[in-house]
Amino acid sequence: MIAALEVTPAWYLVLGSLLFSIGAFGLLVRRNPLVMFMCIELMLNAVTLTFVTFSRMLEDTGGQSVVVFVLVVAAAEVVVGLAIIVALLRKRPDATADDVALLEG
Amino acid sequence: MTVELFVFVVAGAACLAGAVGVVASTNPVHAALSLVGTLFGIAVLFVAQEANFLAAVQVIVYAGAIVVLFLFVLMLLGVDRSDDLEIEPLVGQRVAAAVVSLGILALTFGAIASTGYEATGVVSGFDEDVPDINRLGESLFTDYLFAFEITSLLLVIAVVGAVLLSRRGRRADEIVDPGQEERSEEIAERMVDADHRAHPERYVGNGHDEADDTEDAEDAEAEEVGR
What we know:
Mean pLDDT of chain A: 88
Largest interface: A-B, 75 and 87 residues
Distance between the termini of chain A: 65 Å
Order of helices and strands of chain B: HHHHHHHHH
Order of helices and strands of chain A: HHH
Structural class of chain A: mainly alpha
Strand content of chain A: under 5%
Helix content of chain A: over 70%
Low-confidence stretches of chain B: none
Largest sheet of chain B: none
Number of helices of chain B: 9
Number of strands of chain A: 0
Oligomer: heterodimer
């Protein structure tokens, strides 16, 4: 019976949807700014997986091009975000996401 | 069991396990390592969908650069202490978060199911014989050329921003180290002691050394005051 199962693109979409929800849950629950950032990366990866799947379904390379842009934006976002986190944690090593106001001024 | 099913199940399980690991691990370092598991799983799924170049880029950029950057920050700042996940600082936060994420899940599932598990839209139909990297290159440098050029600007802005943000400001030299004075005094005392031990002959030559001299003077003064 298992041998008859065929992997359709919809499976990848469902997996991407699950990953996105887990990432969203983590982003809302965790308070460590670094872990929150990792959850954002999870969500971005779920989206890239979806884009690649649609690229295969529609036989269009545009989806893969968008993934390249997502990668660039993710890299830029991580660099700036980690710089902010470094500036924040330097002020207080046990800072949580609530303490971003410390950077004011 | 077909190969594709096997690959999908293994890579998908790695993805989900890694994702749960990121959310549920108390130690940020473990979370970063779980993230690597998810990223590798996604890369394998990219290969399964004939996006070989993107799989390579995924491993190089994400696992090779972004996660290393995360670990760098963790280790450099020494903030790799464990969080206590038992504490729920905001009452009802977890329930609300679960509701929101389940809502997202239901929404996306509904969207997938509403199309009958098929993509709606025009199927472009690319040439199967051309490798994916050729197709991607052509797409990037024709249809998306302007966006591609703009990303270079984005990267420059990100670099400048990161340098500006992580630079220590001028006010950094005003930061006072509360224990510094005591510590430097202690170090100076220890240096004198070490000097005594290293060159005892310099201090025994005159019968008594400088330190004793000052102590004697102080004693004499104290005696005078006492009278």
